[in-house]
Amino acid sequence: MSGADLVARVRDFVDGHCIPLELNAHVHDPAAMDAALAKLRPVARELGLYLPQMPAQEGGLGLSWVERAAVFEEAGRSYLGPAALNCAAPDQPNMISLLRQGTPAQQQRLLRPLAEGSIRSCFAMTEPAPGAGSDPSMLRTTARRDGNDWVIDGHKWFITGAVGASFCIVLAQSEQGPTQFIVDMDNPGLQLVRAIKAIDPYAVGGHGELRFTACRVSGDAVLGEVGQGFVYAQQRLEPARLSHCLRLMGRARRALEVAQAYVCERSSFGDRLADLQQVQAMVADCHIDLHASRLMSLDCARRMDEGISVKTESAMTKVFVSEALGRIGDRAAQMCGALGMSEDDSPVALIVRELRPFRVYDGASELHRATLGRRFLKT
Question: Percentage of the chain with pLDDT > 70?
Answer without folding.
Answer: 99
